[in-house]
Please model this.
Amino acid sequence: DQQVKQNSPSLSVQEGRISILNCDYTNSMFDYFLWYKKYPAEGPTFLISISSIKDKNEDGRFTVFLNKSAKHLSLHIVPSQPGDSAVYFCAARIQGAQKLVFGQGTRLTINP
Amino acid sequence: EPEVTQTPSHQVTQMGQEVILRCVPISNHLYFYWYRQILGQKVEFLVSFYNNEISEKSEIFDDQFSVERPDGSNFTLKIRSTKLEDSAMYFCASSVKTHEDFGPGTRLLVL
Model:
């Protein structure tokens, strides 16, 4: 199932700089997108979401951008903090459906 | 802040045995889910539950799986006859509308 893809398995960013995590999808029926963060031995924690009627949503240090024509979304974290080091999952949902389809995850490491 | 809880945190079982994974969703949530993540693979949807019945299930959720909400607080996943390939991290989740809140997971190891 390759409907949601995160092509970068890992990303390393210096503390204070911007982290940009990318996600691509193939199913044009997806209309709601979410980002989750996951620490080891914990469940995924919801970060931010965006509906397909928007192209940007912001919450504090986190901003999600959606480019529907490119079927691409990104998560920007600025400024990056050491506590942001985790695995980040992109997920998507088809309108009217309940299941989330997840990407493979990107491991973000914030270096001091 | 309310959270989803899961028990046990770890379970080891023999192939062919039945296991029950337990979850307590967030109290005012209406939708309940089970997901799993096999080591090195994506988090994948198993089943969703709403209004005391299954509302959606994946191809993985075959006859050996069942879910139940036996009382007003618990939500369980039963695997009737475990297989080696059922070894995974199982996450329970619940939601009101916009996003799922996940529990910490139960690591199931089938030997």
Summary: Chain A has a mean pLDDT of 96. DSSP finds no helices and eleven strands in chain A. The two ends of chain A are 36 Å apart (CA to CA).
